[in-house]
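Reagents: none. Just compute today. DUF4333 domain-containing protein.
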Amino acid sequence: MRIAGCLTVAFAVATTLLTACSGSVSVGTRSVDKNEVAAQISGKLEQQVGQKPDSVTCPQNLPARTGATLVCTLDDQGTKYDVTVTVTSVDGDQAKFDIQVADTPKN
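Predicted 3D structure written out:
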């Protein structure tokens, strides 16, 4: 099963293609709240495969500076993946970032 597009994650099929996508959020304190980053990941996933993962958690806020990265964890039916978020640009109060899901599970 291959799903082209912004963000693809294997739920039940191990051969699903994992790719990257971008998101954009408003930044108030020069960082993006970790819950907002997790919500963006879940939302992009739902757009691509039609369902959200069981959970996405991020350990801390994402600094709103170009090149900053954060590794979050995506969990679906007990299978966990690292999700790397990288800020690509900051324009005023908007931070744009790429989302990359690891191609192999953590566990």
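The chain has one domain: 20-101.
Action item: order primers for follow-up constructs.
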